[in-house]
Amino acid sequence: MRCVVAGSGITGLTAALLLARQGHHVTVVEAAARVAPLLRGFCREGLYFDTGFHCGGGLHAGGILRRWLRALGVEKHLQQVTTRRTEVFHFADGQVFRLPSGQDAVTDAVEQQFPGSGEAMAAFLRHMDAELGHSPYLNPAVRAEPAFALNSAGSVAQYAVSAGFPPHLQAMLGTRCLLYGVRPEESSLEEYSLVAGPYFQSSGSWQGGGLALVEALMACLKELGVTIRCNAAVTGIDADKAQGVRGVLLSDGSRLDCERCFFTGHPAQLEGLIPPGLVRPAYLHRINELPETRPAMLLFAETRDCLDENESIYLLPEPSAEELFPGVECAQPSVYLYCDRPQADGRKAVMAVALMDDNGLPAGNPHPRPANYVEWKRGATARLQVYIEQRLPELAGHWRILDAASPLTMRHWVYGATGSLYGVKHHLGAMPMLPVTRLPGLFLAGQNILLPGVLGGMVSAALAVGFSFGHDNVLKEFRECAEDE
Ligand SMILES: Cc1cc2nc3c(=O)[nH]c(=O)nc-3n(C[C@H](O)[C@H](O)[C@H](O)COP(=O)(O)OP(=O)(O)OC[C@H]3O[C@@H](n4cnc5c(N)ncnc54)[C@H](O)[C@@H]3O)c2cc1C
């Protein structure tokens, strides 16, 4: 069958691979000039910034992410997989706590730093493992149709309070919600388990990060004869009521025939893509009303002699919004820093992320940028740098900011609707979007539909292909590689 995959992020490339392996004729069309703009990262002054994948959970042998990498046939292309990342939490009162990689190490570290909390932490980890164990896409031992989490077990914040965790530990566990841009009080325990759970099992990365993954997937797609077209945004879907999808219209004026379209961009685009009258307005209205995760201000910097490349740093509690982003109506921002392995020239890439809101920023994606916005961005960058140096004095004079990204940058860069960091927000009480749409032949996938992260994108792709061509066909190799371990 002829399939078009719209979008070449981790979701689109995974979907293309799974479809091509089943013998379908696949074309990937990407709006941007290059494949996987987010996942591939970018360079400044010769330094590589791994924006799409600096760290993943479940990378140990038998871990969920590792298993998917193997099932997709890309594991063999990835070098020096490490799972040693430690999270370091700096509190404003001067206290510093650490969460190492691996469940036993986490439990021991919690007991050591918060005496009496080790057993409750072990129970929390067991609870998360049980959640992870329910899904056939995350646990090869489960042989069932996928069922969506109903978010019924309350929030992470509620759990942390009822487990009796001390406030500092509550704040530390809450920071894992940063992985999907939702606050702990609105983050369901189920989704926390699916996104953050694997990070408690092991966390790390491999040499070359997101770019290495893109190259590995591209090599596999080439072998399978998949065509990839960049600078080719889907601008319309050709469909009728009787047949469903018949083809897609592209921004270069061409048309591609297909019977199936897997759309991995932001679903808010659908209203402009689907011919009027083919789906109920209420469906499109629901899609347009999906809430977004929080936008962020990002700093990209270099250092040589500061920060450990095996540590992620969180600055807690969050600074006051007025302090960092005056003029932007904003709930508390959160700040975390990530440092990559040294390059051959000894330089290390540092990425600092401050979650914020964008209420005071210009609407849309204006070019050229308004002068007052340019001024605001310059000020916000400088204030964030000062704030980080106050909290981590060892950085002052030892790092250099090379670039910064604001929510407007994100709108442009990841073709997002709002400039949010992780697209659609998956939160407590929200009804999940399904990959199946009201238009036969059109399927949705990606971080906006299931969950963010490289694992979320891969699983979402598998789920969408499973809904289209049968779950067992997709899960066969995932199950087989578990048997090989
Ligand atoms: C700064 C940052 C750091 C991150 N760090 C990590 C990390 O360390 N670990 C981790 O697991 N995750 C991380 N993530 C999250 C992860 O990168 C994303 O969740 C994931 O890459 C999303 O993949 P996706 O394929 O669903 O979406 P995208 O990568 O956004 O892909 C969608 C693609 O569709 C294209 N597109 C949109 N509309 C159209 C159209 N009409 N026609 C054709 N193409 C279209 C877009 O150009 C885009 O390339 C990070 C994200 C950010 C922003």
**Number of helical runs?**
16
The strand order across the widest sheet is 7-6-15-16-17-14-18
Kindly report the name of the CATH homologous superfamily of the largest domain.
Answer: FAD/NAD(P)-binding domain
Bound molecules: flavin-adenine dinucleotide
Poorly predicted sequence stretches spanning 5 or more consecutive residues? none
Which fold does the CATH topology of the largest domain refer to? FAD/NAD(P)-binding domain
Mean pLDDT: 91
Largest sheet: 7 strands, mixed
Give the helix level as a range of percent. Answer: 25-40%
Give the CATH level 1 class of the largest domain: Alpha Beta
- Number of discrete domains: 3
The gross shape turns out to be globular
In whole angstroms, how far apart are the ends? Answer: 33 Å
Number of β-strand runs: 19
CATH architecture of the largest domain: 3-Layer(bba) Sandwich
| Rounded Rg | 22 Å
Task: Please indicate the percent range of residues in DSSP E strands (runs of 2 or more).
Answer: 15-25%
Structural class: alpha/beta
Please describe what this structure looks like.
The protein has helices at residues 10-21, 64-71, 103-113, 118-132, 156-162, 167-175, 189-195, 197-201, 209-223, 270-273, 281-288, 321-324, 371-391, 407-413, 453-469, 471-484, and strands at residues 2-6, 25-29, 42-44, 47-49, 56-57, 86-91, 96-99, 203-204, 227-229, 234-240, 244-250, 255-257, 260-263, 296-303, 311-316, 335-339, 348-355, 399-405, 442-444. The chain has 16 helices and 19 strands. It is globular. Helix 3 (103-113) runs antiparallel to helix 4 (118-132), helix 4 packs across helix 7 and helix 15 crosses helix 16. 34% of the residues lie in helices and 19% in strands. A seven-stranded mixed beta sheet has the order 7-6-15-16-17-14-18, with helices on both faces. It has a five-stranded parallel beta sheet with strand order 9-2-1-13-19, covered by helices on one side. A hairpin with a 3-residue loop joins strand 10 and strand 11. It has three domains: 2-40 and 52-62 and 66-76 and 207-290 and 424-484, FAD/NAD(P)-binding domain; 113-195, Guanine Nucleotide Dissociation Inhibitor, domain 1; 296-413, no CATH class. The protein is of the alpha/beta class. The mean pLDDT is 91. Flavin-adenine dinucleotide binds next to helix 1 and helix 15.
